[in-house]
Protein: Ig-like domain-containing protein
Amino acid sequence: IQKADNMQDSEMICHLFFYTASSEVPNFPEFVIVGMVDDIQAGYYDSNIKRVELKQDWMKKVTEDEAEYWEWLTERAVDHQQWFKVTLDILKRRFNQTGGVHIVQMMVGCEWDDETEDFIALDMKTWTWVAPQQQAVFIKQEWDKDKARIEYHKNYLTKDCVDWLKKFVNYGRSSLMRTDLPTVSLLQKTPSSRVTCHATGFYPNRAMMFWRKDGEELHEDVDKGEILPNHDGSFQISADLQLPSDDWGKYDCVFQLSGVKEDIVTKLDKREIKTNYGKTSMRSDEREDLTVTVMLSLCFLSSVCSCCNANFTLWDNQNSESESESESDKVGVEMCLFAFTRAVF
Structure:
């Protein structure tokens, strides 16, 4: 990742926009934009309200001091809404799917990851689109003609995104750069179930959890969960351990949080395990510990993105066609994950 100049504490902060255009989805806007800064929702726009809503107090301060950003954001939202409508219509005609539910999703921002597959990619050396699959040739030809939009991508990815990310970190430093330690609990559904080590309430989301035996990390009989968001902006994670047949005293759960030197270690102790097995009701604290917050964010596709690429991925409810990802230049900007989904109900 290319580090922002003189911003050592911001090198892990990401700035992403998630775009979703849809057709024939009942009771849902045809176009939605969600702006995120380090997994915190900072702004929202949809085709129904037709305005940008700010979700953080520090973002309101940004628009007070940087009036041009508010104007730029609103202007781009309207422009993107029209562009996505045209793109969705082109794709529907191309794949002979004029009826039914269709969804186009796109994620753009300053971040890096290596888990996506390319349908179409933007070469940031030549500033032309590359079609690794034959099916993408038609869209490459159309997009290569749009020089104005390529120039917009070039300016945004190499300058605007990074500049605004620096400002976001400056305005939202107390929120974005904070460190919150979690509450860690041992949970079990029944006496024969796996034991779950559950940490909740931590921030940032750069954390790890694993089980150890005699000080060595375990890989077998362990099921690690993903980091999930809570409703209050914090995060949670869990790791399940198959019940050991030997001395429980040899086992412990380790939680590590970025920026915190000391690990949080929880020994496997039957007396510390919380369960509702055999109870007619649960205490409120147990209920809180067992809660798993599931946040459905329309434009979030498992946070997958590929550095310096504009990735267009095609999903079909009957067939998935995508090739393995090509190697990406690893710098700190991206235009990533463009997805087209066809659904039949």
